[in-house]
Amino acid sequence: MSYTAGPFPATAEQLYNAARPAVRQSRTAYLVVFLAGLLCCIQSDTVGITLIGQIYIGEVFLAVYAFWSVLGNLTNRAYWERPFVWALVTLGISFSAYIFSDLLNQTPLTNLLRGWARMAFLASDLIALNALTRRHPLRILAFITGMAVGFLVTVEKLSFDPSWYKIGIATPALLITLSLFSIIRYRYRYALVVAVWTALGVLNFFLDFRSMGATCLLCGAVTLAKMVAGVGLRSLYAIVLAFSLAIAVAAGIYSYITTQDVYGERRSQSNSWRVAAAEGAIYGISQSPWIGNGSWARTSDTDAVIHATFAEVNGKRLTNDPGVAGHSQILQVWYEAGVLALVFFTFVFIFGVKTLWDSVFHIRMNELFGVTLYFTFNAIISYFISPFGGLARFFMALSLCLFMIQGRLLRQQRASLQRSFIGLAGDP
């Protein structure tokens, strides 16, 4: 196995466009993309528009741009890259499963339209973001920063209380910091990124955001290993990586144990609710495994299973609304639309695992490395323990775009190395 590590001498944008005609970049384009991301966190009811569900204003503009992009590139073979086509095909299969399930289950119109809109906007988000970043990969940092700033501006409450921190400050603060530190022209910028990963990893454990804490520490370990290997220890990369991961795991376990006295009861409630939500989804799936129960389905039987399981596991009654069954993409989607609906989500999961492998062992450090690691871990974790609702469709679209960008960068990286070897060997 070959290990490729260390910062690449060219920027991601230069590497990506190495074999293409130069395209002049403008600050205006980045500002427009930033504003698009900002608007994507402003909900429709904020400006007095109330429809069947929450619509993010920026998504409307992305949908228009996606339509224009497809029309303008129908005959452009370079536009229809294989991973992009596979993403659209698998998304089409999952969307069809939702349509089929809703029609057969006679889903109430409001839930039907909300479910279909969720899938349609996921498709338009993916198409638009791919078009925006296909030739200019660094634009995705502008969009991510804009979206993070917009979320901080519009979130209901900014607080370091664990209940509010998890849904308010944690993710936006990480994305803004990563984006800014990744593009600064500073010799030790990757050391700063490692410091950010480590500090936020420990902080998230001490504020009881366990999945984010583990993600940050693991990403910090990978980044540290890549950085160290780039300064002369490339042959020892696997050893450095294993050592870094061991330190990250130890730090995570120590932080978890240290905070157990403070958050023990809260964690017990959270774990019990997750088990109960999973049991409710599994029960619903067993009743209709092939066609599902319909978009945003809620039944009294499923709610009863959730309440009973929670009481059995936790020893107390669940006093809050149990919400949509599953709290897991794989369980929620299967519960709602049947087994065929899993096709797209499983594709994203497999693509994420492949990108993680390439990031750890093949892709060299670039400006997008930090955010790619985060979205990769997020995509893998969300498949099992996060629901498909709200901003999840943005995260899925951004994850796929980053996976495709890093795939292009890896191909260009290998082509550049191949040209270098040919140059060293000389003409035959």
What's this model, at a glance?
By secondary structure, this protein is mostly helical. It is built from 17 helices and no strands. The chain is globular, with a radius of gyration of 22 Å.
Question: What features would you describe in this structure?
Answer:
This protein is 72% helix and 0% strand. The chain is mainly α. It has one domain (26-186, 276-416). The relative contact order is 0.13. The model is unreliable at 1-10, 18-24 and 423-428 (pLDDT under 50).
Q: What composes the largest sheet?
A: none
CA gyration radius, whole angstroms = 22 Å
Q: Give the helix tally.
A: 17
| Shape, per Cα inertia axes | globular
Number of strands: 0
Point out poorly predicted stretches: 1-10, 18-24, 423-428
Beta-strand portion reads under 5%
Structural class: mainly alpha
Written as H for each helix and E for each strand, in order along the chain, the element string is HHHHHHHHHHHHHHHHH
Compute the number of structural domains: 1
Mean pLDDT: 84
